[in-house]
Amino acid sequence: MLQISLWKRVVILALCLAALVLAAPNLFYSRVESHNDAVSAFEKSGAMTEAQAAAKAAWPDWLPSGLVNLGLDLRGGAHLLAEVHLSEVYKARLDALWPEARKVLAAERATIGSIRRIAAPEGELRIQIGKPDQIAKAVEVAKTLTAPVVSLTGVGQSDYEVTGVGDTITFRLSEAEKTATDDRTMEQSLEIVRRRVDAAGTREPTIMRQGQDRILIEVPGIGSAQELKDLIGTTAKLTFNQVYGPPVSTPEANPGMGRALLPSADREGIYYILDDVPVVTGDDLTDARPDTDQNGYPAVAFRFNPTGARMFGDYTATHIGEPFAIVLDGKVISAPTIQAHIAGGSGIITGNFTVEEATNLALLLRAGALPAGMSFLEERTIGPELGADSIEAGKKAAMVGFGLVVVWMIASYGLFGTFAAFALILNVVMIFGFMSAVGATLTMPGIAGIVLTMGTAVDANVLVYERIREELRNTKSPARAIELGYEKAMSAIIDANVTTFLTGVILFVLGAGPVRGFAVTLIVGIATSVFTAIFVTRLLVVTWFAWKRPKTIIV
């Protein structure tokens, strides 16, 4: 007999109600968006203007405020494709190596003769010695700078290759180190670009690596590509400051003349009193990477240029045992204790780090300035008018598609077609509810995916209703025909939707940009259409049948 247990009815109705509540803010898009922007501004600065306060009050805080984010093609904005000059990082690494190489070789001047740097191809450091017959000795001394290091994976390898021919010693980055340097540089560039774009308060930017040395940047809602380029070109501020006393837990503390009170980046409610004048700035930092300490625990190794090395060495010599703050964009990201005099411009930050924490700290240390220059290979500005036209076209397509499907279903299946039409409306609501809950981005291809879902969402209903017709022709009772119709159609429904779902997953994994936008709405639409077709329409049919108790039915 047709029966649906009470708990199943409650779950179905609860999910439908939740979808309605989550999707509802999209009906008041501008108001809710202004509210969210005001809240975000307050969280960043701790204050808001009168206009922001009014915008915040326009939408109650206790109501859901999740929205479906509009993509670049719907909202308008800027698109950039940037190429990172990785070779500049190789040059900086080799330039930083030269003072150390000069120092160790100068100690053997009596044996190897004079030393001087000479012109070299890109990616090489060449040093000429005065006594060519002592080149083997010079290479041996030079290799003390490139002793194998132990990485977090425990694999030992040298960062540099050192060779000697005639009277010339040549340093090159090893291929493994070049690959690692490329990855670190791209990660650093992505992090810096993301921080700068996020600081502007933009909604849902797309910032991702493409290929070996390129970054795709798409920012909806920004005025022009030039504005985005100017935003990326700003410099984040990284400093290393002296710490006075232990951390405090109140922002009202008076730091005193020439001192600053700055919050911890990862410990809420904790503040540090620092010297206003930094000991060293991020401009003097040449590298930072995850490493291990002498006990094999995760740590962060760093290196300064010669100027920074001298200032940092002088400071650490007189402040052993004191904390030293690393400040990024006005927040203390770490405050390690100086364990010993750090000469030579390189040192290691130890602590109770996990591998992930050490990697993230190294990335933040390198995030003060872009590690290499960028060339913009492609730039586009998409005006909001074009986005508005796209939204209007998408609305029309959705309305036409929905109308045709509804008319066809009602004409073909009568009352049962009306149930399917109601489930179709609920299906679209659930798609928007889910995308609002997770903050998904809707693009023009995404709208196409929703329109396609409208057509395929009734497939399951068609299969069920045709099976019911078949059972009625076999002189089954109405109740039995409905029950068998749902049972026998289930395998075909599952097969059809699973294959389409897998296709959507493949598009999402292998695709990018607009293809992913289409895949997201397709995947979500498949899941919601199966739910509405199997559970919602069945609940409607069962409820109607229990109320009317018809002797015959027409499907």
Any overview of this molecule?
- It is found in: Cell membrane.
- InterPro entries: Acrflvin-R, SecD, SecD/SecF_arch_bac, SecD_1st, SecD_SecF_C, SecD_SecF_C_bact, SecDF_P1_head.
- Residues 186-243 form the Protein translocase subunit SecDF P1 domain.
- This protein is of the alpha+beta class and 555 residues long.
- The chain is built from 17 helices and 21 strands.
- The chain has helices spanning 6-23, 29-45, 50-57, 72-75, 86-106, 109-112, 135-142, 175-199, 225-232, 306-318, 355-365, 384-413, 415-438, 444-457, 459-473, 478-510, 514-548, and strands at 69-70, 77-84, 115-118, 124-129, 149-150, 156-157, 160-165, 168-173, 206-210, 214-220, 238-242, 259-263, 271-275, 280-281, 285-292, 298-304, 324-328, 331-334, 346-349, 374-382, 441-442.
- The protein has a 4-stranded antiparallel β-sheet.
- A hairpin with a 7-residue loop joins strand 12 and strand 13.
- Helix 15 runs antiparallel to helix 16 (478-510).
- The longest helix is centred in the last third of the chain and has 35 residues, at 514-548.
- The relative contact order is 0.11.
- The model is unreliable at 149-156 (pLDDT under 50).
Give keywords:
555 residues; alpha+beta; four-stranded antiparallel beta sheet; 17 helices
